[in-house]
Specification:
8-stranded parallel beta barrel; 8 strands; binds SN-glycerol-3-phosphate
Amino acid sequence: MKLYIDSAVIEQVREIASWGILSGVTTNPSLIAKAGGDFRDTIVQICDLVQGPVSAEVTTETAEEMFRDGMEFSSWDPAVVVKLPTTIEGLKACSSLAGKGIAVNMTLCFSPNQALLCARAGAAYVSPFIGRLEDINQDGMGIIADIDEIFSKHKIKTEIIAASIRTAYHVTQAALAGADIATIPHSLFSKLIAHPLTDSGLVQFMADWRASQQG
Ligand code: G3P
């Protein structure tokens, strides 16, 4: 499973990219609004920082508007992936953009049927939202596993991005459930690498080494 950061904050993307583990970035209108910068500048700067796809989401409502905006976003950088909502208008725009060879990430996906329709519309990626399903007492990871099973059974190449990841355990669960990618908030990355036994083991190694050097 590849790891993306779910952030529109340049410094956060730069920091995690420097770890050498990052395969891409997702943004959404809420994250762009929170980060506060110009939308296009933010996306272009992120594309310069990361070797991999960078999702930029439309904020228009009709298929024609989404197609127009998607065409524009994809002209900003070859790494841009156009992010569209999982609606009928989104499906129409996805099909049109995919017909032009443009990679689309279908977001706000909450069911295997939605994911299947997104795949049939030519989406390169589909993003089931784990945390938001759990917020309403539904099994987010079960949706990932079901989509993975359907895509495997029917040889569908659309990649599954586990989104709305809220905990370190979600990352493990998403990998086990068959997600191709997990898009993870900045605050979780340090929790993925931290382990008290790594820390105490390293302290011991260093102490033993220093003692052996003191003759
Ligand atoms: O990638 C989608 C993600 O940003 C949504 O996360 O925590 O707002 O449900 P959340």
